Amino acid sequence: MLTDYHLHLRPDEDDTPPSRYFTQANVERYREAASEHGIAELGVAEHVHRFTRALDVWQHPFWKRWAVDDLDEYVGFVREETDLKLGIEADYVPGREDRMANLLDDHEWDYVVGSVHFIRDDAIDMRGEWDIWRTSGDPEKVWATYFDALGEAARSGMYDVLAHPDLVKVWGERLPDGDLRRFYDRAMDGIAESDVAIEVSTAGLRKPVGELYPNRAFLEMCLEAGRPVALSSDAHLPEQVGYEYEHAVKWLTEIGVAELAVFERRERRLEAIG
Ligand SMILES: [Zn+2]
Ligand SMILES: [Zn+2]
Questions:
Q1: How far is CA 166 from CA 10, 115, 175, in A?
Q2: What is the pTM of this model?
Q3: Theoretical Cys-Cys bridge with 154: which of 7, 25, 107, 194, CB 3.0 to 4.6 Å?
Q4: How far is the centre of ligand 1, averaged over its atoms, from the C-alpha of 86 (Å)?
Q5: How far, in Å, from the CA of 177 to the mean position of ligand 1?
């Protein structure tokens, strides 16, 4: 069994309306690409900030710019017109846990993917006016705050999967010196006390850092804490489905991971990789 659960049916760009991307023809393109990689288990996890309902949770200017689509229509499309698993990529916004939980409670997801994309108002993986590195971001501080938030996200209990867990390395520059486990440690209590699966994402291989998310030491710490693995590509285009999966599966095998998390209506089971 191979999974690709963290899929977006469209790029993070202007002029990507649901009418063009939330269609059976587009889903068919994703299915075909998945078949070529031997991936049977597929699900979508659109960004919460693309839906108007997100503004009940957080009013960040970036969200205000993007929150235009109808969440119920997305859910209806996936459930009624596709055989994809239904997920959503929901940010962890400290202090807004209740609001996000309310939004999530309105639908019956197969899984909820939790992401830390922002530290306060600053973006971890976005260049431009919100970029956390646009001023003199101190790597020690940014990394510490990032992993604190990641641990809190796990502990919140809102998420089935912790997405791209060490996203803070995305740009491959201004990395802290020395053994990075001092940062991973900050998230590990929250992760150990949670029931969350840890996403191994091949998206990092497409980014400047050129590595899988997460770092091997981070994953080993999560495995030690008893957490299972969820495998995804974070594709935003059909040709990114199953991206570099051969590499990821080999890497997981080396580390001793033999099973992947499979989700249905927020129940998780483990199936052998294959
Ligand atoms: Zn993300
Ligand atoms: Zn994503």
A1: 23, 10, 12
A2: 0.97
A3: 194
A4: 16
A5: 25
